[in-house]
Design brief:
It is a single chain. About 35% of the residues are buried. About 40% of the residues lie in helices and about 15% in strands. The protein contains 13 helices and 13 strands. The protein folds into two domains: about 1-165 and about 360-365, 3-Layer(aba) Sandwich (Rossmann fold), CATH 3.40.50.2000; about 165-350, Rossmann fold. Strands 10-9-8-11-12-13 form a six-stranded parallel β-sheet, sandwiched between helices. It has a four-stranded parallel β-sheet with strand order 4-5-6-7. The longest helix has 17 residues, at about 75-90.
Length: about 375
């Protein structure tokens, strides 16, 4: 979603953008963004389908599975052949990509063989060593935290570009804040902690309602696992409502009074945090990765033991820490002065967010590679 917005901004600045991808998604729910095209894609006999996306046209290799791990060698070969054809016929001034799998490594290699400069977008903490960026002329990160991580870890230099979110697509016009919002209930996203806090507040403050938006994760399985961990009988919580995957998050943000970002894995710069700030919603997040950078002073940062930030992310913090998070939620809910101060801090950050200027900065970075 971030790179898509970057490409849209480059197009507005006069760039001729060509996109080559595949029918691969982080989650099957990603298909909802191609809903109007999906039946056409499934019926197509072509190995490559074109999807119009406003100013962009996506050339997608048709795959049997929507999961990257199940992409076949034959499908990868089709993608590779299409890529080299793009290089030879379109003759781009620059190639821009992201990823660190084996096929991805050929992207920079093939471009350099033709004398074409390469830039790579980095928004995760998963890569080790320097092979993934051997054929990359400029690494672009979305957060200072990720830039510092790779500099310290492997001496990889990068330039930080910040978030790319179109405010018009996420800012709710008519707000009625009343829920504690958590998105994508998976262990890596800290859904176990959210469940433990919801269990605690169901006893203390049943009037505080949690809204869980499902995308990749499943709330029911997370809740059952946490209840088992706490020696509790499995049951639904009366203070939790479940919302299915949403293509338009504005109605959800309209209902949010607090956003929880309890991620345990490395979040380079959580998009939900940026979207919350643009909506002037206070956040409570973990002090890991780029989450503090996203929240800034518009919320509370919760520091957790390092062992909780390691896979499989199924450990819960001590009960005192659960109470600390619950206490912060109660403070923001009950204390008008506290809530207003955090909202004002969010407003001050959102005012300075200029998507056009970010696009110009990215354009300048790429032009310098020519």
């Amino acid at each position: 979603m971030t790179v898509r917005e970057q490409l849209r901004q480059l197009h507005k600045l006069g760039w001729d953008v060509r996109v080559l991808g595949a029918t691969i998604f982080d989650s099957p729910n990603g298909i909802t963004r191609l809903a109007e095209h999906w039946e056409k894609i499934k019926k197509s006999r072509s190995k490559i389908v074109k999807v119009n996306d406003g100013p962009l046209t996506h050339n997608l290799i048709k795959t049997k599975s929507t999961q990257r791990s199940q992409m076949t060698a034959a499908e990868e070969a089709v993608w590779y052949q299409a890529y080299t054809k793009f290089l030879d016929e379109f003759k781009p001034d620059i190639v821009y990509y992201y990823g660190g799998r084996t096929l991805d490594l050929l992207i920079g290699d093939e471009a350099h063989a033709r004398g074409i400069p390469v830039a790579a977008y980095l928004a995760n903490g998963n890569f080790k060593g320097k092979r993934w960026c051997r054929d990359v002329d400029r690494v672009i990160t979305n957060s200072k935290a990720t830039a510092a991580l790779y500099e310290a870890q492997d001496g990889v230099e990068s330039v930080t570009i910040g978030p790319f979110v179109d405010p018009a697509t996420v800012i709710a016009k008519d707000r009625d804040p009343k829920h504690v919002l958590a998105i994508n209930p998976s262990l890596a996203k800290g859904a176990g902690i959210v469940a433990a806090v919801a269990i605690e507040l169901e006893k203390k403050r049943p009037d505080i309602i949690f809204e869980i938006v499902e995308s990749r994760g499943n709330w029911s399985s997370i809740l059952t696992g946490v209840q088992k961990n706490l020696s509790l009988a499995p049951r639904n919580l009366s203070n939790v409502i479940i919302t299915p995957n949403q293509e338009d998050m504005r109605p959800v943000y309209a209902r949010a009074q607090i956003v929880l970002i309890m991620s345990l894995w490395w979040e380079s710069l959580p998009r939900v945090g940026i979207e919350a700030i643009l909506n002037h919603i206070p956040c409570i997040g973990t002090g890991h990765g780029g989450t503090p950078e996203a929240i800034n002073d518009a919320g509370y940062i919760i520091n957790l033991p390092s062992e909780l930030h390691r896979p499989p992310y199924n450990k819960l913090p001590a009960h005192e820490k659960i109470n600390e998070i619950a206490g912060d939620i109660i403070e923001v809910t009950d204390n008008e002065e506290t809530r207003r101060a955090l909202i004002n801090n969010a407003k001050s950050h959102s005012v300075s967010y200029d998507l056009k200027q970010r696009g110009k900065k990215l354009s300048g970075i790429l032009e310098n590679l020519f």
